[in-house]
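Let's practice the habit of predicting before peeking. Look at the sequence and jot down your guess about where helices and strands might fall. Then scroll down.
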Amino acid sequence: MSSILNINRFIIPNDVIVTIAKLNRWIGQNQKFLDIVKTDVERIVEQTIERDSYFLSKILSLDISDARTRLIITKNSAPRTKDETTLFNVKEMLTLFQQKHATLNYQSNDLLNLVNSLFPHYPTVKFDYSSTDKKALLQSQAIRSKRIILDEVVAHMDVLIQKEAFEKITLFLHFFVDFYNIAPFVSNNEITALFLLYLLILKADLHCFRYISFFELLYENFEEYQIELNNASFNWKEGFSQTQGFVRFMNNLFLKGYEKTYHIIKEYKFDANLNKGDNIENTISKFNDVFTKEDIRLIHPYVSESTINRALIKLRDKGLIKPTGKGRSAKWMRIYKGFNHE
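Done guessing? Here is the structure:
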């Protein structure tokens, strides 16, 4: 039975209230973060979408090589297989969510369109049916479309939102648990649930996930996520779902997202006040013998590819570093005659 329909039974634990208060303070910094990055925000969001696409492909266990994954994500390479088509569509959907989450809806027909947009290369997904647990002369009277069940949950949640009757993030997390357990479609419910969660996060103004990858953070904590979601789903059908652990886990994950975003924005602000090329050279001087462009991007995630390339070429021409291979995965080696070697 729906967690949303029984939300009045849910008592928010004190430690979760504290976490929600911290999250709301961070949400209050959204505009400040946006003002710092200013005109770079589109490029930053684009990089976030790329990382989200990559880690979501890992979560979904898509059978694609790393080389092809990067080509599809970063170069929009034409897909060759069904899994590659799925990845291509995943990136397109994530882009849509990032750009238009405020106007997108989560009604049953919207979610049906979502799943069929992700998988047009497979048979059309339709709504599943659920037993009514009632005796009936006709089989059609003993089953009920899960679309109706989902619509009832959404309608009740929208009333609570309109009346501001319940804390929004907690409400959205319970809706996610409901969708996961209703499993309204005949297939692909789990991936649709992940996209629903992503949309709800953005709609809850958790804009840290415009700057960092939500699915990267989820991937790093995926085992605990599955444990807590399974715990929240236990006795869900009977109306006694225990969702406190899942709510606590997700809120702490959101808090980690904002803390990570804060440090990245701080670095961005520092970089903006320095010559970006000089800053990259300084970073390279602190690396061990061998490093890659990815190592540089981890420290300077918002510096452009061309700026990184110019710094590498400059140091190469000075004889301070040398490449050990070719292509996107090439590694670089420091030459200690130029850099101090401790």
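How did you do? The mean pLDDT is 90.
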